[in-house]
Amino acid sequence: MIVNLMYTNNWACDEQMRLLKPFGLTLQQYNVLRILRGQFPSPIKVAEITERMLDKMSNASRLVDKLLAKELAQRTECPNDRRAVDVVITEKGLDLLQKIDQYQLQWEKRFHTLSEEEAAELSQLLDKLRGSE
How many whole angstroms separate alpha carbon 98 and alpha carbon 32? Predict the structure, then answer.
């Protein structure tokens, strides 16, 4: 069972990477952009991005720097704490995610082979495996 779970995770990640490659994004950068979009229009601190990331081993500061270089995010000094940095998604970042969303929806249709009940059960079973019932 564990091998199948790991195999399926690797398959899903590979498929996502193929989807994102034409847009010049990695899975981790895409994850950060989605976090920024969810927070928009409010800014978020890099530490909070790290807490929300799917891959906790990723270096959120480095990922934010890459998104800044691509002009998909912008950084501002936090008015309450000069040592902290706020990050917000740019219009360019929002536009890119909107384009990706169309392809993402098509990709997710592959999973419609499961009924709503099966999908909910699978999600519950995965939560149970992680011990977060």
Answer: 15
Measured distance CA(126)–CA(120) in Å, rounded: 10
**Rounded distance between C-alpha atoms, residue 73 and residue 33, angstroms:** 8
Dihedral-angle region of residue 24 (phi above 0 means left; psi in -120 to 50 means alpha; beta otherwise): left
Helices vs. strands in the chain: H and E counts, helices first: 6, 3
Prediction pTM value:
0.86
CB 125 within 8 A of CB 133: no
pLDDT tens for residues 79-130? 777 677 899 999 999 999 999 999 999 998 888 898 989 989 999 999 998 8
Structural domain 26-112, CATH architecture? Orthogonal Bundle (1.10)
